[in-house]
Amino acid sequence: MKEETLGQVFKRYREEARLRIEQVEKDIKISQRMLQAIENDKYDILPEDLYVRNIIKTYADYLSLDYNKLLNLYQENRGEITGNVIKEQKKTRVYITPQIFRYIVIGLVILALAIYLGFQINNIFIAPKLEVYQPDKNITILQNFIEVKGFTEKEARVFINDKEIYIGSKGEFKATLDLQKGLNTIKISASKKHSKENIIYREVLVQ
Fold first, then answer.
1. Residue 195 or 82, more confident
2. How would DSSP label each residue in 77-122?
3. Which residues are bridge partners to 188 per DSSP?
4. Which of the residues 70, 99, 144, 205 has the least number of beta carbons within 10 Å of its own beta carbon?
5. What global pTM score does this model have?
6. Alpha-helix runs per DSSP H in the chain
């Protein structure tokens, strides 16, 4: 017949004494979580060994049990679990040979190149950034001209109403447009070679 574990001994004597675990917690001032870990032989969630020994002594005195026998049982149980863990770790240990290390390095280089190329390709085909600072959306003015100001990427080309305008060294641009009385629609677009076109519209009402 298999010998009882430390946790099974504690649980059996506690139940025979008709004691709820909540009552034990209250009486010996040890948290219910720790008591349940002891009773379930969950040594992996228990604190360091010295602290566990104090818990066992306090719990053993409370249930009038032989501390030395329980301590021996604890050492046997914990030793078995620790030994099994060590054996399992030995089974799953992976050794990195120079050849494996070389393959890892090559794989990382290939991955880095793929990410870089992907970024460059995306940078070629994605529409450039375009911001229009002036004019604001849906404004009404009295004069028949307006200044358009904005910013884009320095590699891009900017068109206002399909007419290309000059871009500064940092990507800034501005142009003055003649307007007609009534509603005027201004098309500002930016594009790079092979990229999509980024378009912003502004509507200006001239009274």
1. 195
2. HHHHHHHHHHHHHHHH-----HHHHHHHHHHHHHHHHHHHHHHHHH
3. 160, 200
4. 99
5. 0.42
6. 6-16, 21-28, 32-39, 49-62, 67-92, 98-125
